[in-house]
């Protein structure tokens, strides 16, 4: 699979390229950046290590690489200032992003290409990409809360001195201030997290707060996030490249999942070669669902502000288009699963509903 990274000279883009190089799964990595020297430098540095890793083609290119890319990633953008919210970035980043979308379109995109948006505010920019590129919505993915979820798991593991890879915990909603921790499903080693010695509501609150502030914490200390976001991106790219059908907390256009519509937001999403292959509506605690819906409202308000400022962008609303491939579980079927027991009397046995991208609305 050939991947191009627009913004590949920058911190996020180059860390993503390095993570993909170490992964050794994709066959070609093309870096594109306004800063041509930086882009060539990053490429050269990657190339120097190639003989130690895998036989991949790594190039510094321009938009002429786009028509042959199977996955086009956008990491170009301006970074947050330490005290700036991600949504404040919007005014500075939207114009730049629309310009990049125009160049991608002009270059010509493969019919089956997947677009992965990383630049912030990622959910809003994913919405614009879905509207502007003319690709089916299932082919446009935002990194969403993938990095937040990774940070969340690592910080929980560190606090409880558990192995990081044995903690499963997810954050859904906006990649931003209204993100939602899904405590109802948090586990370590397959056991409910809230049953672990030393676990209590204060620990939980403090860990979520630290996770939410992690981006700003890293920006303050080293200027911007790189390694963890690179690995988070790799997870998504490999899910596509290897058609893994992994369930990841990524952002895409929703049309009824948890009764949310016309926003790009992170819900548990089956990711495979077709992009978004299904959006899963898993029964969560009621307070988690309402926090998720509130997050969608926050995002919708921002999208409205953006469209008001960019009437040209408003002319093409995104179209929700069904997934081609069926979800791994039969659609329309309600499946009993066991999740972590609820901390609010709401937990215990839960249901999974596959709402897919083939229609909206709750099913079950
Ligand atoms: N979604 C996430 O989880 C997540 C995490 C971290 C950072 N980000 C976002 O990623 C973006 C990049 O962050 P960074 O730290 O890599 O910034 P950076 O400044 O290091 O890199 C950005 C790169 O984009 C390039 N660029 C700017 N305009 C361009 C254009 N029109 N075409 C091609 N390249 C262009 C710049 O030359 C620069 O090399 C920011 O918007 C940041 O907020 C997202």
Name of the top-level CATH class of the domain at 2-142: Alpha Beta
General shape? globular
CATH topology name of the domain at 2-142, in short, is Rossmann fold
Q: In percent, how much strand structure appears in the residues?
A: 15-25%
- Unreliable segments (pLDDT under 50, ≥5 consecutive)? 325-364
Q: Give me the number of helical elements.
A: 10
CATH superfamily of the domain at 2-142: NAD(P)-binding Rossmann-like Domain
Largest sheet: 6 strands, parallel
What structural class do you assign from the helix and strand content?
Answer: alpha/beta
Radius of gyration: 20 Å
| First and last CA, distance | 37 Å
- Small molecules in complex: nicotinamide-adenine-dinucleotide
- Named CATH architecture of the domain at 2-142: 3-Layer(aba) Sandwich
The average pLDDT score comes to 88
Indicate the percent of residues in helices: 25-40%
Beta strands, count: 14
N to C succession of SSEs: EHEHEEHEHEHEEEHHHEEEHHEE
Strand order in the largest sheet:
3-2-1-4-5-6
Binding site for NAD(+): 7-13, 33, 93, 118-120
Region (Disordered): 311-364
GO biological process, one term: lactate metabolic process
Domain Lactate/malate dehydrogenase N-terminal: 1-142
């Amino acid at each position: 699979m050939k991947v191009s990274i627009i913004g590949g000279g920058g911190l996020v883009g180059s860390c993503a390229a390095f993570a993909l190089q170490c992964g050794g799964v994709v066959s070609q990595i093309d870096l594109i950046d306004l800063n041509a020297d930086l882009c060539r430098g990053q490429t050269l540095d990657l190339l120097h290590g190639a003989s130690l890793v895998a036989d991949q083609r790594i190039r510094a290119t321009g938009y002429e690489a786009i028509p042959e890319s199977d996955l086009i990633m956008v990491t170009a953008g301006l970074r947050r200032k330490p005290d700036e919210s991600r949504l404040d970035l919007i005014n500075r980043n939207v114009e730049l992003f629309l310009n990049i979308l125009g160049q991608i379109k002009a270059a010509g995109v493969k019919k089956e290409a997947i677009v992965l948006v990383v630049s912030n505010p990622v959910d809003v920019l994913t919405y614009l990409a879905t509207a502007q590129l003319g690709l089916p919505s299932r082919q446009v993915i935002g990194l969403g809360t993938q990095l937040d979820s990774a940070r969340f798991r690592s910080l929980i593991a560190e606090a409880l001195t558990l192995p990081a890879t044995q903690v499963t915990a997810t954050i859904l909603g906006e990649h931003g201030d209204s993100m939602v921790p899904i405590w109802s499903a948090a586990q370590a080693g397959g056991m409910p997290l809230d049953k672990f010695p030393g676990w209590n509501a204060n620990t939980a609150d403090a860990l979520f707060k630290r996770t939410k502030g992690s981006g700003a914490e890293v920006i303050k200390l080293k200027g911007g996030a790189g390694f963890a976001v690179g690995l988070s991106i790799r997870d998504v790219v490999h899910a596509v490249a290897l058609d893994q059908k992994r369930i990841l907390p990524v952002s895409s256009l929703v049309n009824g999942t948890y009764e949310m519509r016309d926003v790009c937001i992170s819900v548990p999403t089956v990711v495979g070669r077709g992009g978004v292959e299904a959006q899963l509506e898993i029964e969560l605690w009621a307070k988690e669902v309402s926090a998720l819906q509130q997050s969608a409202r926050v995002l919708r308000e921002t999208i409205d502000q953006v469209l008001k400022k960019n009437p040209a962008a408003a002319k093409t609303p995104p179209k929700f288009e069904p997934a081609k491939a069926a979800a791994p579980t039969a659609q329309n079927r309600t499946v009993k699963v066991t999740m972590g027991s609820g901390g609010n009397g709401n937990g215990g046995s839960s249901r999974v509903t596959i709402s897919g991208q083939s229609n909206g609305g709750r099913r079950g």
